[in-house]
């Protein structure tokens, strides 16, 4: 059975590119989002998020009549769920968006449909989703009861695209397909093969769920190693970037880079899903999270020390000092300030600083209101000329290009090793 209509539920950083990828292969796609502004924007052929090349693909998909957005699901042959899965309370996965999405599509499910969960989820989430669907639609059979013979096929297929390279990685990356039965996996592979150039690698749903969490935990643990080294090296008077470059000359050593902490919507969140389910066993994964989350506070301590040194060598009072934070985004060369360790450092500095706190972020025109109440967005040139203390937080290309001769201040905290 072919897929005549594909429905993507949740039109954010993952759902919208996925919907656009199917639509650009002349598949009729209905994108569903509870956010009226997102729906209206997409239906105008525009986008509400920043991702290279996505605007062009969405525009042509909407103009060609292949993609349209709506607030509520209607009948389709395949449903992909890409809604948020944040944590709540003490780092417990919050599945309320997935549940709401599943219940909304349950109303329009029909025999032969395929339901795919793409949202990053704890182990067992797909089985749970299948239960919610079965309870909502007792007239249909599901894989947990009917196996290969089920009316509805269900799979967990995680997304692993890198923000900033989504339109390339969506198509080129291999995709893990975790069907609740072999038939479910076969149907899911058939669906992704509409646009996928990478390989569909088949497993079961629980392994696929764990695979996504494992990938991001692996990166978090490795960044934590680099961040821990940076603390040790500061204490020992060793340049951590030189050290890592030297160690990486070993043929089997490949250490990542330290920084002000780990941000984004994935790496700082997903490892907690493993910790929440296996708190006793997941000791390394939990510690990595704690090391990375602790880094902004360590950076503040470095700023305090540097400001004290600066004051000791100048006739200015603390209230007259200007501290400039370079970079607010959660990683280089993007404008995304959400879940950013650089933002955390800027807030910590501004809350503590008796003088003025300046922030430099060449990728945005304004800063969030809360930060604007305590810090001022200034140009790179102003900060370089007039700030007393410089705090390097994000290695944006503009900052890396600064000529050392332009930097007159000796009072620098460099969390990225850019101005070493
Ligand atoms: N952004 C990434 O880089 C990335 C990469 C891999 C996996 N993921 C995972 O993919 C999932 C989605 O992430 P995202 O970054 O696209 O999130 P996002 O916040 O950008 O988009 C989610 C969208 O879902 C909508 N939504 C919420 N509840 C809904 C409902 N009941 N029905 C319809 N729409 C609903 C929201 O309005 C929003 O537009 C998460 O589980 C995330 O962990 C994200
Ligand atoms: C396993 C993996 O690669 N997963 C990727 C990741 O995407 P991301 O954009 O969140 O990932 P990063 O680029 O690693 O950035 C995260 C934070 O770590 C900081 N960092 C990074 C490298 C380093 O050496 N030192 C650092 O300090 C950086 O500044 C930033 O704050 O999750 C997505 C969603 O699940 C995946 O889809 C995507 O494949």
UniProtKB/TrEMBL annotation:
Enzyme class: oxidoreductase
Enzyme nomenclature, EC number: 1.1.1.336
Name assigned to this protein: UDP-N-acetyl-D-mannosamine dehydrogenase
Role noted for this protein: Catalyzes the four-electron oxidation of UDP-N-acetyl-D-mannosamine (UDP-ManNAc), reducing NAD(+) and releasing UDP-N-acetylmannosaminuronic acid (UDP-ManNAcA).
Pathway terms, separated by semicolons: Bacterial outer membrane biogenesis; enterobacterial common antigen biosynthesis
Family under the similarity heading: Belongs to the UDP-glucose/GDP-mannose dehydrogenase family. WecC subfamily.
PANTHER family for this protein: UDP-N-ACETYL-D-MANNOSAMINE DEHYDROGENASE
Record's catalysed reaction(s): UDP-N-acetyl-alpha-D-mannosamine + 2 NAD(+) + H2O = UDP-N-acetyl-alpha-D-mannosaminouronate + 2 NADH + 3 H(+)
Originating organism: Winslowiella iniecta
GO molecular function: NAD binding; oxidoreductase activity, acting on the CH-CH group of donors, NAD or NADP as acceptor; UDP-N-acetyl-D-mannosamine dehydrogenase activity
Keyword match Glycosyltransferase: no
Amino-acid positions noted as binding NAD(+) in the UniProt annotation, renumbered to this chain: 13-14, 33, 85, 126, 338
Stretches assigned to the UDP-glucose/GDP-mannose dehydrogenase C-terminal domain: 324-420
GO BP, one annotated term: enterobacterial common antigen biosynthetic process
Active site as annotated: 212 (proton donor/acceptor), 266 (nucleophile)
Binding site for UDP-N-acetyl-alpha-D-mannosaminouronate: 160-161, 212, 216, 219, 250, 252, 263, 330-331, 416
Organism domain of life: Bacteria
């Amino acid at each position: 059975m072919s897929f005549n209509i594909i429905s993507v539920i949740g039109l954010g950083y993952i759902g919208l590119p996925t919907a656009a990828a199917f639509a650009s292969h002349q598949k009729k796609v209905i994108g569903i989002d509870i956010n009226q502004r997102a729906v209206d924007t997409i239906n105008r052929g525009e986008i509400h998020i920043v991702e290279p090349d996505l605007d062009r693909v969405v525009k042509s998909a909407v103009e060609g009549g292949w993609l349209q957005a709506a607030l509520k699901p209607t009948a389709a042959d395949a449903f992909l769920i890409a809604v948020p899965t944040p944590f709540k309370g003490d780092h417990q996965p919050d599945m309320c968006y997935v549940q709401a999405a599943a219940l909304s599509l349950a109303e329009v499910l029909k025999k032969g449909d395929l339901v795919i969960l793409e949202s990053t989820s704890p182990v067992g989430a797909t089985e749970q989703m299948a239960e919610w669907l079965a309870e909502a639609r007792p007239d249909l059979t599901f894989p947990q009861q009917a196996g290969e013979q089920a009316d509805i096929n269900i799979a967990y297929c995680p997304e692993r695209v890198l923000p900033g390279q989504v339109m390339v990685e969506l198509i080129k990356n291999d995709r893990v397909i975790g069907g609740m039965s072999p038939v479910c996996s076969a149907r899911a592979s058939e669906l992704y093969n509409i646009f996928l150039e990478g390989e569909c690698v088949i497993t079961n749903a629980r392994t696929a769920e764990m695979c996504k969490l494992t990938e991001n935990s692996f990166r978090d643990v490795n960044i934590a190693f680099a961040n821990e080294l940076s603390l040790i090296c500061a204490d020992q008077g060793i340049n951590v970037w030189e050290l890592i470059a030297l160690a990486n000359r070993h043929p089997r050593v490949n250490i990542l880079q330290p920084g002000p902490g780990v941000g984004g919507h994935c790496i700082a969140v997903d490892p907690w899903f493993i910790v929440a389910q296996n708190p006793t066993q997941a000791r390394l994964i939990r510690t990595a999270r704690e090391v990375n989350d602790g880094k902004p506070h360590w950076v503040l301590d470095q700023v305090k020390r540097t400001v004290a040194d600066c004051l000791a060598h100048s006739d200015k009072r603390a209230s007259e000092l200007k501290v400039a934070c370079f970079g607010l985004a959660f990683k280089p060369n993007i404008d995304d300030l959400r879940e950013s360790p650089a933002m955390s450092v800027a807030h910590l500095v501004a809350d503590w600083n008796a003088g003025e706190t300046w922030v430099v972020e060449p990728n945005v025109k304004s800063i969030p209101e809360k930060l604007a109440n305590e810090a001022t967005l200034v140009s790179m040139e102003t900060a370089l000329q007039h700030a007393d203390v410089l705090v390097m937080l994000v290695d944006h290309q503009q900052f890396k290009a600064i000529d050392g001769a332009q930097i007159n201040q000796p009072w620098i905290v460099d969390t990225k090793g850019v101005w070493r």
